[in-house]
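notes to self, project folder thing:

trying the whole complex as one job this time. last attempt i did each chain seperately and stitching them together was a nightmare. two parts in total, labels are on each line so i dont mix them up again. if this works i'll redo the older ones the same way
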Amino acid sequence: MRRISRRSFIKNTGGASLALWLGISTKGFASQTSLPTEGKRFTPYILVESNGNISIFNTKPEMGQGTFQSIPALIAEEFEVSLEQITILLTNGEKELGNGQRAGGSASIRNNYTELRKVGASAKEVFITAASAKWAVDAGTCYAEYGKVIHQPTNRSFTYGELVEEASKLELPKEPKLKDPKDFKILGKPGKRPDVPLKTSGKAVFGIDVQVPDMLYASVERCPVIGGTLKNFDAQEALKMPGVEKVVAVERLMGVYRTVGVAVVANTYWTALQARKRLKIEWDTHGFETFNSTEYETQLRGLANEEGLPDNTLGSVENLNLLPQNTLEALYETPMVAHHPLEPMNCVAQVQGEKVEIWTSTQVPSTITGSGANDLHKHIGFAPDNIKLHATFIGGGFGRRLNIDYIIEAVNVAKQVEKPVKVIWTREDTTEQGPFRPMTFSQLKGGFSEDGKLIAFQHKVIAPSYLEAVRADFDKTKVDNIMVEGIGEQAYEIPNLKTSFVRADYHVPLGAWRSVTSSTVAFAHECFIDELAYLAKKDPMDFRLELLSKPSDTKRVLEKLRVFSRWDTPLGPGKGRGVAQWEFFAGLCAQVVEVSFRPDKSVVVDKVFVVIDLGEVVNPDNVKNQIEGSIVMALGAAVKPGITLGNGRVMQHNFYDNPLVRINEVPEVEVHILADGGKVKGVGEPGLPPFAPALANAIFAATGKRIRRMPFDLDQL
Amino acid sequence: MPLLWAIRDVIGLTGTKYGCGVAQCGACVVHLNGEAVRSCVTKVSRAEGQKVVTIEGLSGNNDHPVQTAWQEIDVPQCGYCHSGQIMSAAVLLRENPNPSDEDIDAAMSGNICRCGTYLRIRKAIHLAAELQQKGKG
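result (full assembly):
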């Protein structure tokens, strides 16, 4: 097994781990998380010291998706260093590292695959040039390997450390020569992730683990009615508890959602939690106290009759004069869901005069330190230069930590307290306060010509608007592209297509949930394709492939999946299989799900075959881990209760009534990675959208029961 | 005060995690006199004078068979739940040195992994059983 060096171990994890390593107090994380400044920078991402130490600055936060390894791998491959030789440092939104310090949209690799290889390659070239000058030989006779430049004819070598002064004086080439993929030592290989040993020893530091000297703790009571806010509060009883320091009103901004809660600040978190129960609060619920999801869903069904805003149009679905028996219409419904990263929301903030220091798990360091219009500084009243971030490992993101609401709230507490303060949300807070993945309802229509060709297809999404919920300046008269994600761009060749969006008013905070709207609209879209296949009396795989006559990535993926899943081999009695695919901004994936229908009318998910198209792959083992996890997350969203409101409040509170998938519910998963060049696609999200429709289609195959609403109960079919 | 917050905030060992506070997720599992307990619902008074082992104390060098297997198979993603997963698995393997998939599911179904690394957890527990067996041989 590979081990990272003690030195890199210490640096990777900051001072808290250093302290644990040495067996002394764990206090003092604060001063340890700045990037090193000794040595020379080669591009903003590589630092080489004359003693030979090499650091790579990793601008993509690690939330479980594997960027802690995959991003440095791109640089190290071309720079000719091994990952064991280097120190990997997560960045903290430092200006010199640009505004791309964020992880979301499955974009880290697909947007940086070539650029970061160029970073490594250009740095390598200046080291080779420096060495060849020292030896007075032709650079073409030198090569680099494991952090050294070697003169091939004489086998002489210099380490990068020995060359750093000379190399730093040379200009980095803009278009360096990249390696031939057949020479890759790291990329495309199942490399070990250097963060894993930190995560098996309890030494990885997540935001919630940060300890700062003199730190206080806070817990915030927020209005239980979504849309409500603070009217007044009485903290007398809470303040009587020993250890309680202060009780303050605190504002939280989540997109356009604004609410004021009450924070109890105490010397331990437990004391803050107990004192919070003693608060007497009057809320202003603005009439939202009667809101409930059942009525809202009825309203969405009614809106299905509206024309809505056009998204994509091909040909014309009107006036085709289709025979009624050749047309089909269906309404699909999906719920809101919570993100539930296992690390609850938390943030440490310390305000000192005009400066604020923040320690937290975040997907968006650049948003926290940036000077953009939607960045943190706009919401907290500090100049961007006066905001210092210490980013940590993230105990799960899934889109939840793209939002900065919990950071704004913590800073607003810290403004009223002399000391650093750690705000921790309870699981109940995390479940009840959003943001949530918006529900989408989908109205689908399809029609065949008299000779049996699918010639018309409509997908209308009826839903609240994500963009309206997160951006105050969003123009409501325009289609929200996020809410119609992917539906107008599938590769199926259907001559007349119409996709559209009907917006519904909503006051509940919404957020992007892993695979965003594709996690719901793909369910509707790909189940309906199955319904059309059934109407056409065709095998669902044949039906799809017949709609894909031209070469396309989707076609390649489905053809591969047909073979990989042994689609054409009959299953035993009581079993069924279903297929679905989805291409969207993040990438492309197709799945076959196999189920068993039990005599007690329950369904067991037996196996999932997955083909994911990546173009290029960095770490195939990590891709498999991501897909396995995506299946689990998508299964939960398909079959477990979602988030609903009653009397204006979220009806779910914790894992007992908002359950997640457990180990005994997980199907077998087999993954095939297509990485044969072409457009580089994402990994983190594409595994989710095809799962629910493939499962529902499998259930139809096994039981004859068509499912048009998520969640569905596998025990009662 | 629950044992969890005493371990984290008073003693300052942060490997043991808070996930739900109501014994639903297992992120807070520690060993109390060798038994896996959920420290979020265990009163600190119950641990007084008793032996408590957290993830930090499970092995001398991150090399308990369960930890080694976890590293070998690259089990974690975000890693947040894995202190608890590993502490639960360590007790399972002590009591049942050669667990079947069903045994593993029964023993581990109290530990939630939101990233969904369950297939690897199962595989790693089988590997840890092998490593433990070899270690004894």
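what i see at first glance: DSSP finds 19 helices and 27 strands in chain A.
need to look closer tmrw
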